[in-house]
Write a structure and sequence with these properties.
single chain; mainly alpha; disordered C terminus
Length: 379
């Protein structure tokens, strides 16, 4: 009979152990909520941004780096358009349509501005796609349902739908913030071509010097001493050798300013997206989750309060457990062999004289010197 009682008692204890903690007060539920959100951020989000040990997926840093590489490749395609005959023809027609609107030997400012704005539209097009692509990849990683770190925590499982929804809202909001920041930079660039970057004037100067030397030495078959380290600069100058001076100046002016634009804009875009999609994303989600209980006072209770069925079931099991423990005590329970769900029967005691102890180890390391009381006779 006692074995039967103990078997039932063990079964009841196992059922109770599967219940989540009994959070009977609002403060207890709020404390548990913050504990769970910290676990969620540290163990369900941050680890997904790192590369997997088995190499199945790269880190978010590496993913973004590959996307930035593709972004630069697409920008280079837009750069190469400037070297083509179609673009030269377009520039030539644009200049001819403004004849008489500016002083001789001056670049028509409206044409320069319009051509640069067209390149800025191309830059924004590829940047807009980059922003969407980065945040889409981030969302896939953070919301991957194949990874189930929460499956053993009943309370975390109850909160997961809400956590996922908050992550989605956060990413959408952050996506829009980054989108607006970079779009504002494009808008500012469209006001008027302007830069304090010495790269622009340095390129303009080198192009002018190179073309002047070619003009002076064209009958002497003497090559220019100026060399271009940037391959694109070399392509640029070769594409305008047989073009009239006004078109030449417009083309290398657009090209030089474009080079300044993509250098300063692509770096800023990269830094902004690395912050939004990698470095700051977990702390941002963490802050958003912490604010939810303050913004929605019933949020925590609605998810962590026990429903009537669960509360009733827990109470019934608790009462059953208490009755069985009383019966077990009457039948001779409460021995060391029945504490909890563990059995200590036949557990050896630490009484063996041969067992090493700290004292014995100390003695073996520092043996007591033996006094020699025997006096040897003099020879």
């Amino acid at each position: 009979m006692r074995d039967s009682v103990q078997k039932k008692l063990k079964d009841v204890r196992e059922q109770l152990s599967k219940f989540p903690p009994d959070l009977d007060t609002p403060s207890a539920r709020l404390a548990k909520y913050h504990e769970l959100l910290e676990f969620y951020v540290e163990n369900c989000l941050k680890v997904r941004l790192l590369s997997s040990n088995d190499g199945k997926h790269p880190s978010m840093t590496n993913t973004l780096h590959m996307k930035f590489g593709k972004y630069i490749e697409l920008i280079n395609v837009y750069t190469s358009e400037i070297f083509k005959n179609e673009y030269r023809t377009k520039v030539r027609h644009a200049i001819s349509s403004c004849v008489g609107e500016q002083l001789p030997n001056f670049l028509p400012h409206p044409v320069l501005k319009r051509l640069i704005c067209e390149k800025l539209d191309q830059l924004w097009k590829v940047t807009d796609i980059l922003i969407h692509d980065c945040y889409y990849s981030l969302q896939k990683v953070l919301l991957d349902q194949k990874i189930d770190e929460h499956k053993n925590d009943i309370l975390l499982m109850k909160l997961m739908p809400a956590f996922r929804e908050i992550v989605i809202v956060y990413l959408k909001d952050n996506n829009q913030i980054v989108h607006n920041q970079l779009q504002e930079m494009i808008r500012l660039e469209k006001h008027d071509p302007y830069t304090m970057d010495s790269l622009y004037m340095a390129k303009i100067k080198r192009f002018r010097m190179y073309l002047s030397e070619l003009e002076v030495n064209k009958d002497r078959e003497k090559k220019s001493k100026i060399h271009f380290e940037d391959v694109d600069d070399d392509y640029m100058v070769k594409s305008i050798l047989d073009v009239e001076q006004a078109t030449q100046e417009m083309l290398y002016s657009v090209y030089s300013y474009w080079k300044v634009l993509i250098r300063r804009f692509s770096d800023y875009a990269g830094l902004t997206l690395r912050a939004g999609c990698d470095f700051d994303v977990c702390s941002g989600i963490q802050d958003r989750l912490r604010r939810v209980p303050m913004e929605q006072c019933d949020f925590v209770d609605s998810y962590l309060s026990e429903d009537v069925i669960t509360r009733t079931k827990r109470k019934q099991l608790q009462q059953t457990k208490e009755r069985l423990e009383k019966v077990d005590a009457i039948l001779g329970g409460h021995s060391l062999a029945n504490i909890g769900n563990n059995s200590f029967i036949n557990t050896p005691l630490f009484e063996s004289s041969s067992m090493m102890t700290l004292d014995k180890l100390a003695e073996s390391m520092n043996p007591t010197p033996t006094l020699n009381t025997t006096t040897s006779a003099p020879k």
